[in-house]
């Protein structure tokens, strides 16, 4: 069942956003980002994140649409415990093109990018968290879900999850989020791509 975007709680609410019957559309603010220390030496916690509570294990997925054109333009899903422990995954524009990107942060940020498919102006991302393992999958069509990343993540009684978008080098990226759901953690085999 799709989640009502009106039920979320903003961290760094964007100046421009709206919800209609099926989607959340937002426009990013100036130089927004989530990052902690690694390589660059700075900490930023200014990105836009619409948070929804979860139990200790869950699967969340969302559809993302946007035109990602400027260095570090990004949008996707975030899972968050606090400012020191969080994960963001989705699209990020770097080195002249859009990649699927994941940043896992536990005190310091770790960034990985991949390119299982290139059509990243309209795609889906899925996050499953259970027993300290974070499973991230991406899809062009919402039915075939290759693995993007498997990573450890702190165990907790509950988390916050929801759409996120940032533009570290500019403002004015408009992103549409839809088909957002949160449910029980999927338990399919790691190599089951359904």
From TrEMBL:
It comes from the Bacteria. Gene3D superfamilies: 2.60.120.200. Keywords: Plasmid. Signal peptide: none annotated. This is DUF1349 domain-containing protein. It comes from Rhizobium acidisoli. The lineage of its organism: Bacteria, Pseudomonadati, Pseudomonadota, Alphaproteobacteria, Hyphomicrobiales.
